[in-house]
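Appendix B. One record, verbatim.
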Amino acid sequence: MSKKPKEIAEPTAQTAPPTLFPLVTGSFVVPGASTGVTLTDTAIAELQEDGKIKLGNQYRRNLNDLASAWIMHDRSVQSSRPKQFRNRLIRIGAALENARKASDINASNAPPSDRHLLNWAINVPGASTFYEELQALEQQIKTIKQILTTLQNALPQDFGKRRPYNDTRMILHLAEIYEAAGGKARIYASDYEKSGWADTAFRRFAHKYYAQLPLSRRRRPAGLDNALRDALGRRRQKG
């Protein structure tokens, strides 16, 4: 059996931690490797043109930092669900039960060949503990299966719904960068546009920036428009 990775610490709480902690979003990242993107000069030029703003070096760094945060957030909402944990635990339990049955060569209903094998094995030099090891394995499997039951009982209910995007914070930060660069973050509905939204500079800027992000799960254009409206509306309410 492989040793427990040193990176995983023993939980200290008396209750089960949430399934999002510790968070694992994929393969271990090599230290120093970038998890974000660097906007190209062409991308910056398009953002400036669509947004009618000027993006200096500091604003470019801010946009790159925001991209990294947005990507990491996207990875977090794609992490495992309780249902996936439960299904995996069930498969482990089934495999262990199959192993237990297969290794029980002294069961009450064992065929004569199993009894013959057992009596022969314990008389082979170097294999005299064969049966004791099988018994120890059976007990270990029973212990692990009890732990599997505990783990399954600790999992919260999972109705199978996708996690919400929860990207309001990133959208508001994008609006702040845009306004710091001289723009006005505005988005509103319009009956004169096919999309149903006024063709504001900020809306074009936000859509262009969002398209640059290598997200595994992205909003559709209409969904992004709604998210922009909701985020800015929430900011106005807070004053």
